[in-house]
């Protein structure tokens, strides 16, 4: 599932899993989650990171 969040509705700071940088309040971005996941599975991405996610190599290790 993917949803676009307009800047006017972005009220918290999130960390983008694509670049590991913060998405500050007021910045439009994308929220993605599994159709079978819960709220804790949502990830907030910069639009450019989301669009390029399939062509980038992963440099961050997930626990």
**Order of SSEs, N→C?**
EEEEEH
The assigned structural class equals mainly beta
Number of domains: 1
Rounded average pLDDT: 90
Strands of the widest sheet, in order across it, are 1-4-5
- Whole-angstrom Rg: 12 Å
Distance between the termini: 23 Å
The multimeric state of the shown protein is single chain
Assign an overall shape: globular
Q: Strand percentage, roughly?
A: 15-25%
> How many E-type strands?
5
Q: Please, how many helices?
A: 1
Helicity level, as a percent range? under 10%
Low-confidence blocks of residues: none
Biggest sheet record: 3 strands, antiparallel
Features of the shown structure:
63 residues; mainly beta; three-stranded antiparallel β-sheet; two-stranded antiparallel ribbon; 5 strands; 8% helix
If you had to describe this structure to a student in words, what would you say it looks like?
This is ATP/GTP-binding protein. It comes from Nocardia panacis. With 63 residues, this protein is mainly beta. The protein has one domain (2-51). Helix content is 8%, strand content 24%. It has one helix and five strands, in the order E-E-E-E-E-H. It has one helix spanning 47-51; strands at residues 2-5, 14-15, 22-23, 29-32, 43-45. Strands 1-4-5 form a three-stranded antiparallel beta sheet. It has a two-stranded antiparallel sheet with strand order 2-3. A hairpin with a 6-residue loop joins strand 2 (14-15) and strand 3 (22-23). The longest helix is centred in the C-terminal third of the chain and has 5 residues, at 47-51. The mean pLDDT is 90.
């Amino acid at each position: 599932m993917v949803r676009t969040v307009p800047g006017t509705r972005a009220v918290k700071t999130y960390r983008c899993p694509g670049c590991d940088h913060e998405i500050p309040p007021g910045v439009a971005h994308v929220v993605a989650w599994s159709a079978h996941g819960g709220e804790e599975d949502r990830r907030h991405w910069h639009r450019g990171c989301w669009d390029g996610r399939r062509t980038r190599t992963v440099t961050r290790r997930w626990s």
